[in-house]
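To fix ideas, we give here one paired sequence and structure record:
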Amino acid sequence: MNPIAIRLLNQQLIAPQFSKPEEVVAHFGAMQAQEYRMMRWAVEMRTKRPSMKAFTKAFNEGRIVRLHLLRGTWQLVAAEDYWWMLDLCAPKARQVINGWMSSNKISIPDDELFQIREIMVAAAEVKGSVIKEDIEEALAEKGIVMDNHRLSYHIRFAELDGVFCSGELLPMKASYSLSVNKIKKTDSIDRNEALMLLTQKYFQSHQPATFEDFVWWSGMGVGDCRKGMELLGNRIHKEKYQGREFYLLDGCRTRGFRKGDYLLLPPYDEYLIGYKSRDVVLDPDHKHHAHNNSGIFQPVIAYDGRICGNWSPFKSNPDVSFFEDGHSPTALGKPWDGYIRMQNK
């Protein structure tokens, strides 16, 4: 088994199979979207013809949605998966947020929650898409002044209750719309079916992956993760690599890998953040170049799937620095041109 080649293929980082950005997001189930500007590249680099216009259109039309979901962090999900994933994952996400609030000695009583929610909804109904400053203004009109931290929790609970989702795609700031006005309501599905579907989406996009990888990524309990894998039955099997058990779905992509390619990966990309077993593609001695212990991830360069350097997405050139030998910055011309071209298409 060549886990690096298989991950590249199933992550759609080489020989991508999809033309539409929402198809990529649906393939993953959920994609990390911590960095607001770079989430666009994370999706589009996995399509056949990367295009910022295509991503913007899909986002603005609600075919791709951004919200806090897995592990209480920002994710992209496809509209077709939004309602069932919210039903499945929101309870655990609420527990995470309640834990953060408790550690920060913040408590939001029900009467406050309902009062602020009513004002937030009214503002979104009027404007269609609101930013945090619009909500602050609406609160001020009612004589309410709230610090940014507390308001953020109100917005997160509105997301997890299916009231707010992402609004219009703006250059730098997150915006919010009413979910009911943007995303078509779908029928609820059985929790076991949802667990199975989440598990399937994880492994089809991240295979080969360990059980611990899935637990980390999903933020679900160990029992739920184990049940999700059991529900897949004989569609999932395991193989050993360097003494560890990795799981793959039957029909896993294994052909199409080619050597000699560089990839410019955004920070928080699923290629790294989607696993605990990051040492498969990243030498532990160099992990501080890719992420710190506080969960801050950097833009990285991969060569034949191995993480070997860093780059800068927001400069006039990639400003490459390699932490592994044998690489030249001049080799990044083609992937850098692709990155720039995506922004102009």
Notes: Residues 262-344 form one domain. The chain has 15 helices and eleven strands.
